[in-house]
Amino acid sequence: MAKIRISRLLAPLVLLLVLCASVRGQAPAAPALTSVITIDHGPNSPAQQAKPYVVLVALDGFRYDYAQKYGAKNLLALANAGASAPQGMIPSYPSVTFPNLYTLVTGLYPEHHGIVANSFYDPQSRRRFTMTDRNSSNDGSWYGGVPLWVLAEKQGMRSACFFWLGSEAEIAGMRPSYYLRFQDDFPDEKRVDQVMAWLRLPPARRPHFITLYYSNVDHTGHDYGPDSPQTAAAVRHLDDMVGRLQSALKTLPLRVNLIVVSDHGMENVQGIWIDLDRYADLSEFTTVGSMLYPRTESAAARAFAQLRRSGDRLRVYRRSQVPLVLHYGGNPRTGDPVVVPAGPYLVRARPPANPAGDAMPPKGMHGYDPRQVNNMNAIFYAAGPDIVPGTKLPPFENIHVYPLIARILGLSTGPIDGKIEVLQRSLKTPPAAPRVP
Description:
The chain is of the alpha/beta class. The protein has 2 domains: 42-108 and 145-268 and 373-426, Alkaline Phosphatase, subunit A (3-Layer(aba) Sandwich), CATH 3.40.720; 273-365, Gyrase A, domain 2 (2-Layer Sandwich), CATH 3.30.1360. Helix content is 24%, strand content 18%. It has 12 helices and 22 strands. The strands form 7 sheets. Strands 1-2-9-8-10-3-11-20-4-21 form a 10-stranded mixed beta sheet, sandwiched between helices. The protein has a two-stranded parallel sheet with strand order 5-22. A two-stranded antiparallel ribbon has the order 6-7. Helix 8 (188-199) packs parallel to helix 10 and helix 9 (216-224) packs antiparallel against helix 10. The longest helix has 21 residues, at 229-249. The chain is globular, with a radius of gyration of 22 Å. The two termini are 24 Å apart.
């Protein structure tokens, strides 16, 4: 059994808590910072110590055109130094955070890895997965596939996660060697400092695969919209964090590849909430957000017929008839019928029971079919000693990031949806493909 401990002895892994006075006229106390948790999987194997490093950074809600739109100089420089997708990387449907963060690190569509929305219901187990409930989001039984940190650990390579969906859960019997419990207000600069602290560990303990996550741009996009000065400021701030990380990585005598992605884009909302219970009888349904879980087949058939008459803002399918391009009909967790917005509309099954709890609609939103709403497209930038400079890639699905990272790290993969051939040309003199066990 792997030994878990809060790392207090290794100086590079300690992030000191700074206390501020909270009396009148002085700054309030700084938040207590979550600590690095270390799991002793043993040292990197000798073969893995010779491998390259990958730092995977996710900027939540960072639309594909934000760097150009708002002059994110460090990301634009990263594009010139390595590979990029100028028209964006295509997120999996639905284009929301949890399914896509997990797709990026498993190479599987949501219908195959099981995280089909930020919150959803499992008709088979009769349990709910809720993004704000740590008991569900940190329960490894929800997660299918083999995340990159598990892939690395099982092959004798150490890994570290500074926030990523699933990294706190035990998946396939493993956690990363180093991880932190999610804390959204953790100082942005200190996140970079911790990544560098990991990369300065002795070779036997140094993680070769590291994740880093920021949510700033997503928050401002929702609150103020993608065209707002607040979103522009958030983009430039995170660009500064990328620049800080780039500069620090250049000081290391290591073969480090930096990959910066996002989970989805953002679009201005059109109209107010569309409440599905205005068009269909949902009395025999369990509902989560806009997702519908019927108690009987007759209830599903009746609601499908009713919702089809709801107008051209919604596309409604029986689960077995969801278009194959969405890769969303193969898992009962997606519900039945499946409602797909035809544009940037706000859809929910029901309004809150208490009208007083009905908050103002957000100004920006995502979750839409990226083939219908182009501004759902995400970013992809990669640079480092294993990446061909100046590579411009056409739009590609985010399932292909997993095999790219596995190839750089020299890790063997099992069956996945992603294909290394899609991003092969961005790699310098690619090594022979690892054998699939």
